[in-house]
Specification:
Elements (H helix, E strand, L loop, with lengths): L6 H22 L16 E6 L4 E5 L5 E3 L15 H13 L4 H6 L5 H9 L5 E5 L5 H6 L4 E6 L2 H7 L5 E3 L11 E7 L8 H8 L3 E12 L4 H6 L13 E2 L2 H10 L3 E8 L5 H9 L15 H14 L4 H4 L4 E7 L2
Parallel strand pairs: 4-5, 4-7, 5-6, 7-8
Antiparallel strand pairs: 1-2, 2-3, 3-9, 8-11, 10-11
Helix pairs in contact: 1-2
């Protein structure tokens, strides 16, 4: 059974999301600081929408979407000392982590692994940045020589039981270590300064090395429909939500060339749409378990989508960007 059809998980996550809204409301009381585009530096930005507490802008020069104004003086704490963030990691660990043997047995069907193996040869040296408890490393280790990097003390302790995982940030990596492929799985959106972050990663890639990115898409159909209430903008952690154009601009500025870019997961469900129309104040994207028959309705739509060949115009605006870039 998909974890997204697990009522206990959905209730736990919905409770956590509501707590994150309360944190966002506290942060919105300020002080907040306006900022130029963190990708291209342009001051020409326009208000896009509000997520219920915090505002987001779109850059007129590179199309990037980012929190603005923001609480730059109080960055999100991923080190393991923030009780609310730790609660999120505990929910993920409890409900989303499958037994080790089960995960490895199904590694070949994992979308991330399938994508990498089309573009990166087996045996390559792989670094997963922000590896959390090491679930992705468990899969990648079947095909690659893996290492991880994780700033959170608690999740690092779990991952390091099974893999070589550095505790800290990119600047804490040994200077002599370079990799054939670096992976960023759902972390780029929470980075305060993405330009500086990518610039720091590039020296860790060998010449010809590749950078894999999986990150929310600000140009998806779900965002166009739900705006600031789409799941990417919940709470307070989404500092930067990229479009295909702004992601490529970020990488070009760092000297990386595009190999391939696609989108995945439509994430527009009829049960969510009905809740959005019927009860918008209670709406939480993909987590409307309070709605009668919600889980069964979600199962039914997932079953239909699994058999349906999506039209190209839907596929082009999936809810997540999946991209690969190369260092010359």
């Amino acid at each position: 059974m998909s974890v997204n059809h697990d009522e206990e998980y959905l209730v736990a996550l919905r409770t956590w999301i509501n707590a994150s809204f309360e944190r966002a409301a506290e942060l919105a009381r300020g002080p907040l600081e306006p900022r130029p585009c963190p990708v291209c530096g342009s001051p020409q930005v326009g208000h896009l929408f509000n997520n219920g507490n915090l505002d987001y802008s779109r850059c007129e020069a590179c199309d990037h979407v980012f929190m603005n104004p923001w609480f730059g003086h109080r960055p999100v704490d991923y080190s393991g000392h923030d009780k609310l963030m730790n609660q999120f990691f505990e929910i993920m660990q409890r409900y989303r982590t499958r037994p080790f043997e089960e995960r490895q047995a199904n590694a070949g069907r994992d979308r991330r692994i399938s994508f990498l193996r089309r573009h990166v040869p087996d045996g390559a040296r792989l670094l997963d940045v922000g590896c959390s408890t090491g679930d992705f490393l468990d899969l990648a280790a079947l095909f690659y020589e893996v290492s991880g990097l994780e700033p959170n003390e608690k999740t690092w302790a779990i991952a390091s039981r099974r893999h070589a995982v550095h505790h800290g940030y990119v600047e804490d990596l040994p200077r002599d270590q370079v990799f054939d492929v670096v992976t960023l799985n759902q972390i780029l959106y929470g980075i305060k300064d993405p330009a500086a972050f990518i610039q720091a990663l590039v020296p860790r890639m060998r010449s010809g090395g590749r950078l894999y990115i999986n990150t929310p898409n600000a140009d998806s159909w779900a965002v166009r429909l739900f705006g600031g209430r789409a799941n990417h903008f919940e709470g307070f952690a989404a500092m930067n939500v990229f479009t295909p154009g702004s992601l490529q601009r970020l990488m070009r500025n760092a000297g990386l060339r595009l190999v391939t870019l696609e989108t995945e997961w439509l994430d527009v469900y009829l049960p969510d749409l009905f809740e959005w129309l019927d009860n918008p104040s209670a709406f939480i994207h993909k987590r409307n378990v309070q709605r009668p028959d919600y889980i069964q309705d979600m199962k039914d739509q997932d079953g239909f989508l699994a058999k349906w060949n999506e039209p190209e115009f839907l596929h082009e605006r999936g809810n997540y960007l999946v991209a690969l870039f190369e260092k010359p």
